Amino acid sequence: MKCDEIQDILFDYMTRELGPAQSELVREHLRKCDRCRAAAAELQATLAALRDAARDRAGIPEHLSEKRRRRVRRALVHPVIAWLERHHAAVSIGVAVLVILIVFVYSRAKTAWSYRVPPGIPVKVLERGTEGSRDE
Amino acid sequence: MSTPAAQSKSDRVAAFEAVVAAYESALLRYVARIVHDESAAQDVVQDTFIRLLGSWKDRLEPSPRLSGWLYRVAHNRAVDWLRKESRRRLLHRNQAQERRLYVPPDRGPEFALSDAAVRAAEALKGLSLREQQLVILKVYEEKSYREISEITGLSVGNVGYILHHAMKKLARACR
Ligand SMILES: [Zn+2]
């Protein structure tokens, strides 16, 4: 195998993704080739630095907080309440729109009601010329 | 064949608790390293488990397939959060209070991170989200290419290819 081909699979080799035959090829090549050995050393150092960084657990919670754990449990036991909780923004907007709609429809109905023609009072229709005098 | 009906309600509660216990730490670690925000990581993992309840039709028990599903959903929700966050930052970029000062986290007296580790972690943040995802899964979480392929939907060959280039970039940045 050529150096380029070896270097393309160095990371696979180091993280045990190669089969035994290919691993042996890489090992054999690294024994003889300074250039690839240097590339492997650099990659190994980067890998070691990352693995060291992986030990850093600052800012990484170990468990779900009590609040989240309760929410998750509620979703299991009371899925509808949990859904409302999770979509509280959309639910609040929906409720607000509904309230506005109800108030609007109600006030329109009320206005119409107050201008209604009361029942029992006949609507007087003046007909021209049927009576002697006309209001001017 | 076991169906969800085969698990009674109390069984299902217990099974779900076991799934949460099995995966919460790993998912929190993974998501926190993508979003770099503890509270957001908590929200993302919480939502992932809640979504599991609605979507998972098979028996609830730890398995490679379930693990892959959880990582996949958590990742997508983490990306959603990052998008929202960057939009929010863009909106408020002129507001002074948005400029958060970096406070190095308190790691305790005996925990010392090597300079190389700090530099590598910093360089990792400079990679694309896809590259970060694969490096975190492979190096931090020690997943195999096959498992990563299950999580990401990428082919095994593609996983190796992206990782090879990501590691080259990191090596260059750490020189
Ligand atoms: Zn060589």
Task: Characterize the structure shown.
The complex is a heterodimer of chains A (136) and B (175). Helices cover 68% and strands 0% of the residues of chain A. Chain A is mainly alpha-helical and 136 residues long. Chain A folds into two domains: 3-53, no CATH class; 66-114. Helix content of chain B is 70%, strand content 0%. Chain B has 175 residues and is mainly α. Chain B has two domains: 1-102, Rna Polymerase Sigma Factor, Chain: A; 109-175, Arc Repressor Mutant, subunit A (Orthogonal Bundle), CATH 1.10.10.10. Chain B has helices at residues 9-35, 38-55, 64-91, 115-125, 129-140, 145-152, 156-174. Chain B contains seven helices and no strands. Classes of the chains: A mainly alpha (136), B mainly alpha (175). The A-B interface holds A 8-12, 15, 17, 42-43, 45-65, 68-69, 71-72, 75-77, 79, 82, 86 and B 12-13, 16, 20, 24-25, 28-29, 32-33, 36, 38, 41-43, 45-47, 49-50, 53-54, 105-107, 111, 113-114, 116-121, 124, 135, 138-140, 144-145, 160, 163-164, 167, 170-171, 174-175. Zinc ion (ZN) binds next to helix 1 and helix 4 of chain A. Zinc ion binds next to helix 1 and helix 4 of chain A.
- Biggest chain contact: A-B, 40 and 49 residues
Could you give the distance between the termini of chain B?
55 Å
Unreliable stretches of chain B: none
The backbone outline of chain A, from C-alpha atoms, is rod-shaped
Which range does the strand content of chain B fall in? Answer: under 5%
Count of distinct structural domains of chain A: 2
